[in-house]
Design brief:
This protein has 65 residues and is an all-alpha fold. The protein contains 2 helices and no strands.
Length: 65
């Protein structure tokens, strides 16, 4: 990587930090925190359910072999 490319990437990184870090540092309203927690829990349950389905399917395939 050339020095000018490295300098450009560093400048972009500094600008992104300046633009996005302050809003991320402010706490979310309580309603959004609750909604986010529900969404995360839903995704975890969905993933676990999919993994169990995949494990069950694999055991059926092994049993028929």
């Amino acid at each position: 990587m050339t020095m000018s490319m490295h300098a450009a990437l560093a400048a972009i990184g500094r600008q992104l930090d300046a633009d996005y870090l302050p809003p991320l540092g402010t706490p979310l309203p309580r309603e959004l925190e609750d909604l986010l927690a529900q969404l995360v829990a839903y995704e975890i349950r969905k993933r676990e359910s999919t993994e169990r389905f995949g494990e069950g399917l694999q055991s059926l395939i092994r049993a028929k072999s």
